[in-house]
Amino acid sequence: MAPLAGYTCYPFRNLCYELGAGLCFTEMVNVNSLRYNDIATKRLLLTTQKEKYKAVQLVGSDPRAIEQMAKSDYIADFDIIDINMGCPVPNLVKSGQGSALLGDLKRASHIIKKCRKSGKTVTVKTRIGLKEDKLIAAEFAKMCEDSGASMITIHGRSRNMMYKGTPYFDQIEQAVSVVNIPVIANGGIYSKEDADIMMNSTGADGVMIARYALENPFIFSELTNKKVDKSFKKIINEQIKITSKYYDEVYTLDYIKRFISFCMRTQKGSNKLKQSLYKCGNIDEIQNIIGLIFNKEGE
Ligand SMILES: Cc1cc2nc3c(=O)[nH]c(=O)nc-3n(C[C@H](O)[C@H](O)[C@H](O)COP(=O)(O)O)c2cc1C
What we know:
Oligomer: single chain
CATH class of the largest domain: Alpha Beta
Number of domains: 2
Active site: 87 (proton donor)
Bound molecules: flavin mononucleotide
Structural class: alpha/beta
Binding site for FMN: 57, 125, 155, 186-188, 210-211
CATH topology of the largest domain: TIM Barrel
CATH superfamily of the largest domain: Aldolase class I
Protein name: tRNA-dihydrouridine synthase
Cofactor: FMN
GO molecular function: flavin adenine dinucleotide binding; RNA binding; tRNA dihydrouridine synthase activity
Order of helices and strands: HEHHEHEHHEEEHEHEHEHHHHHH
């Protein structure tokens, strides 16, 4: 499961593991905000003993700040640190973070080496380049391996493609051919067939799914042949329960609303229900709407 800002909180990661995902990440955690002890940032680091594998994603541009946070108590519970070298959001890129590192391999290498000093397993998530006329997936992957990364995930789009367009399978394939560490392919997977095409066209060691997992978390059981006998309604109710246990009501409402409306994105005629959903001010009201949305499904 991919890191997704606003979605891959502890309850959602738990769900993905339960449905068959091999590895899940927190959403990106900004090392600068963490250094200033920001409450909302610290909340992103919630995990428990029950989480199968604990992987945090950090984003930053200063190698020393990343090292400091990688060694800090904040992330003591996590065994894997993934470094975000792919986020295209202008604010982050302007300050040399995320996909900006695709244009500064020296700094990117320095970040990985410094992060490794934490003694944790370090992985990298990146893209294939900044622009389509300069694609560098293989060179970047080699740099990651040489700097000490244990795995690299490649989103097969360039920074300027943002989240649209067909991923460049050949770029991922070239990266696979030059490194010995596992390469995970990401981008545009919206079905089991898409995942098979991605695996076959790139020779990657695995696939990472992002947006489609919000629409259909069962994709993990489909891909791993894991038998799951649960309705969507039951899943949502469990998500409400676990989120309420670990987070306050404001966060729980916000997360559940966002999750349900993502699931309903492709459902026709769902606008009225979505509007009612967004008006819900407490958990009981949300439960009523869920009853209406999923009335065709049994418990
Ligand atoms: C709402 C949203 C939030 C995202 N947050 C993160 C993030 O925190 N860290 C990261 O590395 N990528 C993030 N991404 C990128 C995804 O992990 C993934 O690389 C991208 O969506 C392509 O995969 P897809 O085509 O399967 O959606 C985000 C994407 C979206 C749409």
